[in-house]
Amino acid sequence: MARSASRISPDAPEALARSRYTRISATKVRQVVDLIRGRHVDDARRVLRFTQKAACEPVAKVLESAIANAEHNYGLAVDELVVARAWVDEGPTLRRFRPRALGRATRIRKRTSHVSIVVARPEELVAAPPAGRSAAGARTATGSKTTAKTTTTRRGAASESETSEDTDKGES
Fold first, then answer.
1. Smallest Cα–Cα separation from 77: which of 120, 127, 18, 117?
2. Which end of the chain is more exposed for a tag (fewer CB within 10 A), N or C?
3. pLDDT of the chain along its 172 residues, tens only?
4. 5 belongs to a structural domain
5. In the chain, how many domains are there?
6. Which among 1, 9, 3 has a CA at the least distance from the CA of 124?
């Protein structure tokens, strides 16, 4: 039942939710945010519920807030939403000192982070693509695949001419 997120339409309304000064390091939160980026919101909720990391709780709160913003502010249906973008920025670091041996002190860094999640409708639900035109057909029209074939052919031809020169040198 896992639905994958397709491209997000540029004119589709998006809902943003942000949590600032969360008392957990940005690297730990990024591990969790990477799990939900691009997923359907129901799938993202499920992943956050069953992942055993401390960062799941604040990320789940931000996700729920983004879903509520989309529903209330833009009137979007919850079952159509995907996590369009999600990122984590570093916040200010709180510096504390801990006493050590011989009268020294060590700095303890208590890191904070800012979590941002954007939910939106996928493009395929906003507008259906025109009939008879596929993404694969659009790629072949540009001719990008033929360039790769000619490059391979040129390399093969160059290597054959080098080998024939090597055999000519060996014969004389």
1. 120
2. C
3. 444 455 555 566 899 999 999 999 999 999 999 999 999 999 999 999 999 999 999 999 999 999 999 999 999 999 999 999 999 999 999 999 999 999 999 999 999 999 999 999 987 655 544 454 444 444 444 544 555 555 555 555 555 555 555 555 555 4
4. no
5. 2
6. 9
Within 51-110, residue ranges assigned H as helices are 56-74
Prediction pTM value: 0.67
On whether both 142 and 112 belong to a single domain, the answer is: no
Q: Are residues 145 and 69 in the same domain?
A: no
Kindly state whether residues 44 and 74 are assigned to the same domain.
Answer: yes
Name the helix (H) or strand (E) containing 136.
helix 135-142
Dist CA 145 CA 164 (whole Å): 30
Structural domain span for residue 155: 135-171
Handedness of CA 113, 53, 15, 65 (dihedral sign): negative
Are residues 121 and 141 located together in one domain of the fold?
Answer: no
